[in-house]
Design goal:
By secondary structure, this protein is of the alpha/beta class. The chain contains three helices and eight strands, in the order αβαββββαβββ. The radius of gyration is 21 Å and the shape is globular.
């Protein structure tokens, strides 16, 4: 039996070139500004999903550090996945801690393909000092505030219970 498949073609709204289809790359002859208008938008809200060995203990650690609130806690019917989502109420940052039954229990390493580290941007250079005090109060080891000579940026580096490298990062103005 022959089955006919139809696909809905949706043009990208606000694209200055008629016929640019959602999900297809814009034509190469478009200028940079026009190409940017032809790319579907994203909200700018960030949701990070991290594979961890013990979602419950990692959730408690992240909640204490960042003052996160529970969003939901899900365990798959077959028990092979445990997913805890936390939200930071002001910024709406969502951190999801995912446990997989197949996890062999090794600690995270940025030297494997995938995540290198996760940065939390701070608004003011001085904020890093306040975060250093918070890490000290929570007993979390850290690098101290680093200001590398190769950049005007500054950071405070530390690791979560699974060894995932995290940073509070201040980016110097480019102006």
């Amino acid at each position: 039996m022959l089955t006919e498949i139809t696909q809905t073609v949706t043009e990208v709204p606000n694209c200055p070139i008629p016929g640019v289809i959602r999900g297809q790359p814009p034509p190469p002859q478009l200028g940079e500004a026009d190409r940017l208008q032809c790319v579907p938008s994203i909200s700018g809200r960030v949701e990070v999903n991290l594979t961890v060995r013990d979602p419950a203990s990692s959730a408690a650690w992240y909640a204490a550090l960042l003052d996160l609130e529970d969003l939901y806690d899900f365990v798959g019917e077959d028990g092979r996945m445990h997913y805890i989502a936390l939200v930071e109420p002001k910024s709406q940052l969502v951190i999801c801690l995912v446990g997989h039954q197949q996890n062999s229990g090794e600690r995270f390493s940025e030297f494997h393909t995938g995540l290198d580290h996760l940065e939390f941007l701070v608004d003011h250079r001085e904020d890093r000092n306040e975060w250093a005090q918070t890490l000290n109060r929570l007993g979390i080891s850290h690098s101290g505030v680093k200001e590398p000579e190769y950049t005007r940026n500054a950071m405070l580096t530390f690791r979560d219970p699974d060894n995932i490298q995290l940073e509070f990062f201040w980016r110097a103005s480019t102006r």
